[in-house]
Fold this sequence. Notes:
The chain is of the alpha+beta class.
Amino acid sequence: SSEFVGEAGNAVVCRLRASSDPDLLARAMARIASAVARESMVRGGLLLHGALAEYSGSGFIMAGPSGVGKSTASQRLPAPIRSLCDDATLVVRDGKGRFWAHPWPTWSRFFVDGPGGSWPVERAVPLEAIFFLAQAPVDRMERISPTQVAALTMESAQVLALTSFGIDSQDVAEMLCTDGVRAAWAVAARVPAYALKLGPDGRFWELIDRALPVHAPADTPTGETAAAPPTKGSLSASPGVLRIMYTGQSMRPTFQESDL
């Protein structure tokens, strides 16, 4: 177990109770991390189900459901691209509206004699692009609309929020429908995003390279602001598909805000 100790300046201090059981220690650390992620959502951030990597000062996320190939894609990235984590990424917003990405632990690696691991969670890289992964015969990439980005970002955040925050599911749903929706729309308005189809033997990182701005590392992020919600629902079309984002309350719980 863990306990809240107090605040020291801008820091919140938590203390872990002594234990010889590594599973208990890992669960306590996971609870603390979940609290950080939850408070980040209130401040315009999101915990996304995606791998984080960095190339020449630009951070990018490869997002997608379990089994789509996030870990495999992370392992295949060649130098000088660096994989920072392969499962979850904490996205936060600074006072200038820029988004920054922190690598986040894969907590399942610590349980049942798992291999463990180490992640520099205190380090942030500027978030320059999100790539939503899917399997395909050959590599292919296409830009997607802000409406699609918002919906897919919400889907990615929802997966981790419902399993990681450790609070009542109704509270999580309400938070996602308010703070989560605002954050997802802010990400969609600021961060370019792409549908990235991964073939078994392609050089998908060359497609990523074309989409990323290459620059020197930016300043450390400071401060946070809340994102503004969209003024109304939106539609976007792609060949053969009409995508409609649901807004409002009348169809709850069948539909939730930002369902696509």
